[in-house]
Amino acid sequence: MNPELEAFLPLFPPADLDDPVTAREKLAGLSASAPPPDTSGLTIEDHTADGDVPVRIYRPRQAHGAIIWLHGGGFVMGDLDTEHPWAARVADVAGAVVISVGYRRAPEHPFPAAVDDAYAALTWAAKNAAELGLDPARIAVGGHSAGAGIAAAIALRARDEHGPAIRFQLLNQPELDDRQDTWSARTFTGTPWMTRDKLAATWRHYLGDTPGTPYAAPARAADLSGLPPAYVATAEFDPLRDEGITYALRLLQSGVSAELHQWPGTFHGSQAILSAEVSQRQIAELAAALRRGLAD
Q: Angle at the Cα of 23 (from 285 to 50), degrees rounded to 5?
């Protein structure tokens, strides 16, 4: 493991999702303790998409394209406030409008609530592009972890339902497969932040008694053709690593342009350690990938 990251391991909270309310409180505290982002170059507005989905829009000066941004948190944790530092950084560094979505969370609102909310935000942004100052032909979807999985799901849904055109997918350490049978899922059972037990809990809360489907777990999709180009980033010591790599390979094999970046020495969510040089490179590369994906 990268020694800069390893030094911070004692500061990470226990990886436990048995009590979702407490887990949310811990994540909120961790987010609040992080250095605040520089928002001086951004205009930030709260809106409601499609009547009842809260979104927060981050608009940099001379923005080039937009992204529907889905926060991580195992489908259980996270909200607009905990995602504020990340959404602001993405908007600032990538020079893109970020529409951060406060989707409903499990277990109170299991699948398909989060996907429905994310898709509603996408269709709202495309429908109101002129009013929002967006180019409807340059809207991407993306996010971290569970949010990246939801982004992949709405890309599938938009393809299947002939919905809004999606320019690009930005999938950072995506959570895509409820079966948890990859080599990394079976091997990295006690890695920082994401353990096998925590991963199982995310799917238990999210799916409930509902069987896994492609919109819940995009790795289950039999056909990945016709999807938007994608950038997929994975972390070496992450149970989710191999499902992200496999998804990127399957996109390529389906004729979809895809870029895969596997970050050595990192673990799930380690880019939150902003002082580490590798984290700075990860954030810069995510932003650069988004700029490339939205470019003319």
A: 65
As a whole number of angstroms, the distance between CA 103 and CA 75 comes to: 9
What is the C-alpha separation between 107 and 261, in angstroms, rounded?
A: 32
Q: Which of 153, 120, 294, 163 is nearest to 224 (CA)?
A: 153
**Average confidence (pLDDT) per 10 residues, the chain, 296 residues:** 92 80 89 87 96 96 94 97 95 97 98 98 97 96 98 98 98 98 96 91 96 97 98 98 98 98 97 94 97 93
Order across the sheet with 139-144: list the strands.
42-49, 53-60, 97-101, 66-70, 139-144, 169-172, 230-237, 258-267
Please report the pLDDT score of residue 1 as a whole number.
93
Do 269 and 208 contact (CB within 8 A), yes or no? no
Please enumerate in sequence order all residues whose Cβ is within 8 A of that of 52, keeping only pairs 6 or more positions apart, or say none.
Answer: none
Closest CA to 239 of 176, 171, 186, 177: 186
Inter-CA distances, 172 with 59, 72, 99, 110, Å: 21, 10, 17, 22
Encoding tokens for residue 137?
């032909």
As a whole number of angstroms, the distance between CA 168 and CA 141 comes to 6
Tokens of 185: 């899922």
Region for 157 from its dihedrals, namely left if φ exceeds 0, alpha if ψ lies in -120 to 50, beta otherwise: alpha
Rounded to whole angstroms, the Cα distance separating 210 from 197 reads 19
Q: What is the pTM of this model?
A: 0.97
Identify the CA nearest to 232 among candidates 212, 257, 255. Answer: 257
Task: List active site positions.
Answer: 145, 238, 268
| Closest among 138, 128, 151 to 96, alpha carbons compared | 138
Give every CB contact of residue 211 below 8 A, 6+ residues apart in sequence. none
Cis peptide before 13 (omega within 30 of 0): no
> What is the rounded (10 degree) CA torsion for 10, 11, 15, 21?
150
